[in-house]
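Entry 0007
Protein: Neprosin PEP catalytic domain-containing protein
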Amino acid sequence: MLYGDEKPRLFGYWTSDSYERTGCYNLLCSGFVQVSTAVVMGGTIQPLSADGGSQHVINLVIWKDSRSENWWLRFQNTNLGYWSPLMFDRLSESATITQWGGEVINKKTNGRHTTTEMGSGYFPRAGFGKASFFKDVSIVNENNNLVSPNHIKAFASKPKCYDIVINSYSVDWGSNFFYGGPGRNTYCPI
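Output (structure tokens):
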């Protein structure tokens, strides 16, 4: 609804006070400083994976520059921009929680759940080639090295509409999970 289409987009939402009074999507307000036009925050993502066909992986990294103390977003191998540490009251030194996943806006038009798909629109159990996934999920530690997180927990607010399945760590996939769903369906009518 934000952009008037159903295209997948690189989006970010920031809040400086844990969703109490502040927050904004993409470049709709000051906060994220875009420095590259390779991909614009809020812009469409290409190429897309095909149902049962070619699967494409996007590499994203958020890291803190020790000199400037800015929090940078890297897409593929390009630094897209940063958030100033002055924006955050609880993120001056490090993050205490990191979240990965999908998001859908549900306005409950006519009292019914949206038919907006999350990810590819398949539930996670459809697996590779169908369901959307995150692989090599890592965090940047205090030594600026990528490491797998210790305790990944799944959360799905409407598992009959959208769900998540955390998989075992593997050498090829690292920490990983499948996620998504169709939105309104027989088991998720409202």
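Curator remark: The mean pLDDT is 86. The first strand starts at residue 13 and ends at 14.
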